[in-house]
Design a protein that fits this description.
Blueprint (H helix, E strand, L loop, with lengths): L2 H4 L16 H20 L7 H22 L4 H28 L12 H10 L3 H4 L8 H33 L2 H54 L1
Helix pairs in contact: 2-3, 2-7, 3-4, 4-7, 5-7
C-alpha cells in the first residue's frame, strides 16, 4: 500500500512519553529524596512507624508514575489507574506532613506568612533533586514540611491536568482493544481501497494492450508489404 495511506491507519501503541521531562515527575523525585532525609533526620525510626510510611508513600508516588508511563504504551486505562495510585500515595504523604506540623504546634505557611512567596517562587522554579539537596541538612522541620506541602500541592495540580487530558484521550480513542480494532479496520480499508483502485485500472490496461496489439499487427502488415515490393 501507499506509505501516505499507512499514516492514516490508527496505531495500536501510544507514542512514548519521556516522563523524566515532566515537571510533576521531577517534583516527585524531589519529594522522595526530601522525605527520606526528613524522616531520618526528624523522626525516630525505632519509635515512629511514620518513618517507613512516609518514605514508602513518597516512593510509591514516584514509582507509580514510572510504571504508569511504561504501561501507558499499551494501556491508557492502566496508565490512568497507576497515575491515580500515585496521586493517592502523595495525598497520604501530604496528610503525614500536615499531621507532623499540627501535632507539634508548628505553622502551615499560607499567603499571610512572610516566607510564603519566596517558598512558592523557589518551588515553582526548581524541579531537580540537586536544587534542593544542599538544604536538606540546613532547613528546620517546619521549613522542610512546608517545602514538601508546596511541592505536593503543585504536583497534584499538574497531575490532575495531565490526567484530565489522558481521560479525554481514553474516551475518544479507547483502550488497546479499541485501537487494535481501529488499526485492523483501517488496514483492511486500505487494502480494499487499493484493490478497488487496481481493479479500476484493469479495463484501461486491457484497452491499452489491445491498442498495442493492433499497432503490432498493423506494423507486421506494413513489413510484409515492404518485403513483397522488394
Amino acid at each position: 500500500m501507499d506509505k501516505d495511506k499507512d499514516k492514516d491507519i490508527p496505531k495500536v501503541l501510544q507514542n512514548e512519553v519521556q516522563y523524566q521531562d515532566l515537571f510533576f515527575y521531577q517534583k516527585s523525585e524531589v519529594l522522595y529524596a526530601l522525605t527520606y532525609h526528613f524522616a531520618k533526620r526528624f523522626l525516630s525510626a525505632k519509635a515512629d512507624r511514620t518513618v517507613d510510611q512516609m518514605i514508602q508513600a513518597a516512593r510509591s508516588g514516584k514509582q507509580n508514575i514510572v510504571e504508569g508511563f511504561a504501561d501507558g504504551m499499551t494501556s491508557t486505562e492502566l496508565q490512568l489507574k497507576l497515575l491515580n495510585v500515585a496521586r493517592s500515595s502523595l495525598k497520604e504523604l501530604r496528610a503525614d506532613y500536615e499531621d507532623y506540623l499540627t501535632t507539634r504546634h508548628l505553622t502551615v505557611w499560607d499567603g499571610g506568612n512572610p516566607r510564603y512567596d519566596t517558598l512558592l517562587k523557589f518551588c515553582r522554579q526548581h524541579n531537580k533533586v540537586s536544587d534542593y539537596e544542599p538544604f536538606f541538612d540546613r532547613w528546620g522541620d517546619e521549613e522542610q514540611c512546608n517545602v514538601a506541602l508546596t511541592l505536593l500541592h503543585m504536583t497534584d495540580k499538574m497531575m490532575k491536568t495531565y490526567l484530565s487530558g489522558l481521560d479525554k484521550q481514553f474516551v475518544t480513542q479507547g483502550g488497546i482493544k479499541e485501537r487494535m480494532h481501529a488499526a485492523r479496520t483501517g488496514y483492511r480499508k486500505g487494502i480494499d481501497e487499493e484493490l478497488q483502485r487496481l481493479s479500476q485500472q484493469v479495463p484501461i490496461l486491457e484497452q491499452r494492450i489491445e491498442q498495442l496489439l493492433n499497432e503490432k499487427r498493423h506494423l507486421e502488415v506494413l513489413l510484409q508489404q515492404a518485403r513483397k515490393r522488394d
